[in-house]
Design a protein that fits this description.
CATH architecture of chain A: 3-Layer(aba) Sandwich
Strand content of chain A: 25-35%
Strand order of the largest sheet of chain A: 3-4-2-1-5-6-7-13-8
CATH class of chain A: Alpha Beta
CATH topology of chain A: Stationary-phase Survival Protein Sure Homolog, Chain: A
Radius of gyration of chain A: 19 Å
Oligomer: homodimer
Chain lengths: 252, 252
């Protein structure tokens, strides 16, 4: 094994057999040795959830020279944590990539996303981390010219690691991508979030509501104009502006 | 019912019967009509996870003039979402408060916390939201002078709502609190995160590692010096500094 080759840890929230992670792996293997540690099953909407009280295990699915695949019974964050603890004690991954998610993780979806959650966890551990998502929900993703863009982003980040504490949240529109835009997270929420299931229970549903559809610097705007959106996200959520105001008003 | 009284939605991640939520309710009822919608069972470490594919229900536990209690089979974020959809369609809560969590949600713990997750969800819905946590893990919380501080914070936020998109993450040290500090989130992580369970499985454990123990402006520093920490957190995680750099380097 070439010890200078980057090690790329891949995970997702759709499960290790999903089409998105398979296509992402085909791109990533051009840039380094790939280790997949991904959920046994669907873990969508798990955000940065961690599993306690339930024993976690990793099952070796397959192993070859440049791709090793494990399935883990935990959340996306568990996959990152447990693999760092078990597989990467001597040499840590150079990159954590998560996805390609089947469905949007732009704007407020990033809050709930397990795909983004896994990238947050890589970032907490000081590893350059990227979440990739497609706005397609289909089981098979028709990715057009998305894969060369992913390849370019991986190459850029392997060459120039991300700032500590910053991850990338990358989303792709359906169909051809005209351009890649660096954006901020749009201000949005979900509304009418449930449908009745029976007399006293409800299933999650809902409509996406973008509070600023005309804001051209947002991920949602880019995606609705056939552009890929790249949003740098922080692990540190501190609102420094308001912190300064609070300290001015009440503080020392 | 006095329609001018504030409506306060209370939730947590330790379950509706936990001591922390009971003590928080006793304080909150002095400031408004309280509706508790909290998990049936322990939901620690759920972050902003949401439940899809499984029907969610709310069970009315008890009802009086000023406190109504529901138990919900979902995550803390589900509790907020489902109650907004079912109970608060005509008049929304004036405040969402979450806690008092049994255990720290300072620094990186906020990433994984269901208590903080619920407050994030309130904030996504433009409701002033506060997460309260105690560094005590005990089943019964010995809160000393914490409750008057919580009362003051609730009073302040009812009078002056938080900026849209900003929530408060409040943590209390064990024992008496000398002072309340406005802080930033400390840069920390967990290390050595698992212990073997059997030959091929692991249980979450780990040691908290603060990367900046001497930084006096952090929540961890305040908490280790007998102070309560108040950290304003943003829903919008965009790293605007790095976004500007990316646009300067590659962008339009």
């Amino acid at each position: 094994m070439d010890n200078n080759r980057p090690i790329i840890l891949i995970t997702n929230d759709d499960g290790y057999e999903a089409d998105g992670i398979t296509q992402l792996t085909e791109v990533a293997r051009q840039h380094g040795k790939v280790v997949i540690v991904a959920p046994e099953q669907q873990q969508s909407g798990k955000s940065c959830a961690i599993t306690h009280s339930v024993p976690l295990r990793m099952r070796l699915v397959s192993e070859s020279d440049d791709i090793t695949i494990y399935a883990c019974n935990g959340t996306p964050v568990d996959c990152v944590k447990l693999s760092l603890y078990t597989l990467f004690r001597e040499r840590r991954p150079d990159l954590v990539i998560s996805g390609i998610n089947h469905g949007s993780n732009a704007s407020v979806n990033a809050v709930y996303s397990g795909t983004v959650g896994a990238a947050v966890e890589g970032c907490v551990n000081k590893i350059s981390s990227i979440a990739f998502s497609s706005l397609q929900y289909d089981k098979k993703l028709d990715l057009g010219n998305v894969l060369p863009i992913i390849s370019q982003i991986i190459e850029d980040v392997v060459r120039t690691p991300l700032p500590l504490g910053t991850l990338l949240n990358v989303n792709f529109p359906v169909g051809e991508v005209k351009e890649v835009r660096f954006c901020r997270q749009a201000n949005a929420r979900w509304s009418e979030e449930y449908v009745p299931h029976d007399t006293d229970s409800f299933l999650l549903a809902g409509e996406f509501y973008n509070r600023e559809p005309d804001a051209e610097d947002t991920d949602e705007w880019a995606l609705s104009h056939h552009m890929a959106s790249v949003v740098p996200l922080l692990v540190d959520r501190t609102d420094y502006n308001y912190l300064h105001k609070l300290n001015y008003k009440y503080g020392r």
